[in-house]
Amino acid sequence: MLHLIRKYNRPTPRYTSYPTVPMWKEPVIDPENWKASVKCTFDETHQTGISLYIHLPYCEKLCTYCACNKRITTNHSVEERYIETLLKEWKLYLEIFGEKPCIREIHLGGGTPTFFSPRNLEYLIKSILETSDLSPDYEFSFEGHPNNTTFEHLETLFNVGFRRVSFGIQDINEEVQIAINRIQPFYNVINVTHWAREIGYNSINFDFVYGLPFQNSQNLARTIQTSLKLRPDRVAFYSYAHVPWTSKGQRAYSEEDLPGELEKANMYLMGREIFKSQGYEDIGMDHFALPADELAKARLNGRLHRNFMGYTTTPGELLIGLGCSSISDAKYAYAQNEKTVEAYTAAINENRLALTKGHFLTEEDCEIRRIILQIATTGKYKWHNLDQDKLVALKDLEIDQIIKLHDHSLEVTPQGMLFLRNVCAVFDQYLNGDRVKNKFSKAI
Q: Any long-range contacts for 337-343 (C-beta under 8 Å, 24+ apart)?
């Protein structure tokens, strides 16, 4: 397995979209064309419901490993202003829809959503729901920091419809926590997990990161084994991406403090084996779930979907991103909001969408997106015609037992699930040469 990791561990997209964000062609997207795409997609799909991603960027402390869009402050007076701006942006989209939307999915991401008080989060969600209908199979989820998620947070969000919560564990080793500036006593993880179960959440996810500074296989194994005693329903096992040129906090340590490539590969293989030995199924692209969890069920019955929020059990073609840096997917187009709170707020207060870059999909883009989505969610793809270059690339993957080739079709092997991003990349028309350098994390 290690020789395959060396061979395929190259910069590769995570394929939460296609084309991937660095390949988008509109450095400044035309707002009228974007609105037309949103309206068209809404009219085509509003019966099935839309998804909302709400970006809450504030954190009280900087976790130095984090490459997410965030704003560090201990001033909680920013909460009300930011929420009012979110609701103004939502109103702009309601005007585009022209009728009451049906909401199928809401995800609160960050930053740290639980930076916000339970009362303010409740106000935000209730204000959105007052202007919407709810799909019968809606799913609401949020990201909670174990250090500041209170029983009141969990109870308040449960009462407005949330049933899924994700907690960032990363690593419980003190040396690693000091290096990444995330001192998180494990009893906080125990508390929030027990509270969530007591309240009635039906899916709890733990995030782990491998490849962090001063991390090794021994302390990572302890982190995973200790955490799995709490029996989370889902697990995300992310590779640390060292990108100090875009995330300045990562300059707090050097590459010499990071595990070597071989050690990092062993960490992933070890973690994967622990998850499987504890009964977790490999969903693909860093995600594992217990068989009874809806994510595993969705993959089994063909309902699994993938979008900017990652894997989801609620397939949909219109995802609206609210908040600074949020990304929206309108089936025929993508658009991203301004990345800074100031630029985002200024645009919304001028009664205009806070759009920056985007991409309008060609027919070829749409077809390739369909192929990549199918591979990422089912591990299978069947074709009528395929050009010779792709067939050669797929035959190489078959030789390495990553896929099985049948008559005009492929199937990813259990071993190949580790290389799912590489299989998708075969069909990526934008993935070539220098355009890849420093744009994507490595596949493993």
A: 337/55, 339/69, 341/57, 341/71, 341/78, 341/82
Please list, in sequence order, all residues whose beta carbon lies within 8 angstroms of the beta carbon of residue 358, skipping any fewer than 6 positions away: 24, 26, 29, 34, 333, 334, 335, 336
Whether 413 contacts 402, CB under 8 Å: yes
Name the residue with tokens 């989801």. 312
Looking at 3.30.870.10, 2.30.42.10, 3.40.50.1970, 3.80.30.20, the CATH number of the domain 2-360 comes to: 3.80.30.20
DSSP state of 99: S
What's this model's pTM, rounded to 2 decimal places? 0.94
In angstroms, what CA-CA distances link 125 with 103, 130, 160, 347? 12, 9, 7, 22
User: Could you report the per-residue pLDDT of 294-323, keeping only the tens digit for each?
Assistant: 999 999 888 899 988 889 887 788 999 999
What pLDDT digit, counting tens, does each position of 205-216 carry? 999 999 999 999
Partners of 12 in the β-ladder = none
Q: Are strands 281-284 and 287-289 parallel, antiparallel or unpaired?
A: antiparallel
- Tokens representing 222 are 């302890």
The predicted structure's pLDDT at residue 187: 97
Domain residue limits, the chain:
2-360, 363-435
Is 214 in a helix, a strand, or coil?
Answer: coil
pLDDT in tens, 6-21: 888 887 888 989 999 9
* Mean pLDDT (whole number) for 27-47: 93
The interaxial angle of helices 78-97 and 31-45, nearest 10 deg, is 70
pLDDT single digits (tens) 258-276: 998 889 989 999 999 999 9
C-alpha distance across the termini of the chain, in Å: 12
- With contact defined as beta carbons under 8 Å apart, do 63 and 249 qualify? yes
**The pLDDT of residue 194 is above 90:** yes
pLDDT in tens, 85-101: 999 999 999 999 999 99
42 vs 56: CA distance, rounded Å? 25
Beta pairing class for 203-210 and 162-170: parallel
Angle in degrees, CA 238, 240, 241, rounded to 5: 120
pLDDT over 90 for what percent of the chain?
Answer: 79
User: Fold for domain 363-435?
Assistant: Arc Repressor Mutant, subunit A (1.10.10)
How many Å apart are CA 34 and CA 359, to the nearest integer?
A: 9
E strands present in 79-161: 102-110, 133-144
| Lowest mean pLDDT, pick from 116-125, 166-175, 432-441 | 432-441
Fold equal for 2-360 and 363-435: no
